[in-house]
Write a structure and sequence with these properties.
two-stranded antiparallel ribbon, 4-stranded antiparallel β-sheet, 107 residues, single chain, 6 strands, alpha+beta
C-alpha cells in the first residue's frame, strides 16, 4: 500500500466529525514515519494521550488483539472497528502486554 492509498483510507473512514467519533487517545508504531504506510502493520501502541480513556489502561508497547471481541490484526482493522463505535460506548479491549494476555474496559 502506498502513502496515497493510506491517506485515501483515512479520508474515507474518518467521515464522522470529532464529536461523533469514539476517542481512544492512542497512536501506533510507525504512524510518525511519513515515508512508509503503517496501516497494515500490527496495532502496537506507541503513544497515549494522558487525558484519554486509554491512559493508565494501555501502555506503550501493548499489542491490541481485539475490540469488543472482534479480532484486530492491523492498524486498519483497529480504525475500521473504532469507526463503528460512538463516544461514551463501553469498549472491551484485549491486549498482549509483554507476552501476557490482558483485558481492559474503556469508557
Amino acid at each position: 500500500m502506498s502513502i496515497e492509498e493510506q491517506d485515501l483510507f483515512f479520508n474515507e473512514i474518518n467521515s464522522k466529525s470529532l464529536a461523533e467519533e469514539a476517542y481512544f487517545g492512542i497512536d501506533f508504531k510507525g504512524s510518525k514515519n511519513n515515508k512508509k504506510p503503517y496501516i497494515d502493520l500490527k496495532p502496537i501502541v506507541d503513544w497515549i494521550d494522558k487525558d484519554s480513556p486509554s491512559f493508565k489502561k494501555l501502555l506503550e508497547g501493548d499489542l491490541i488483539l481485539s475490540i469488543n471481541n472482534h479480532k484486530i490484526k492491523t492498524v486498519r482493522d483497529f480504525f475500521i472497528r473504532k469507526n463503528k463505535l460512538n463516544p461514551g460506548d463501553k469498549v472491551s479491549i484485549k491486549i498482549n502486554r509483554k507476552k501476557k494476555i490482558l483485558q481492559t474496559i474503556l469508557i
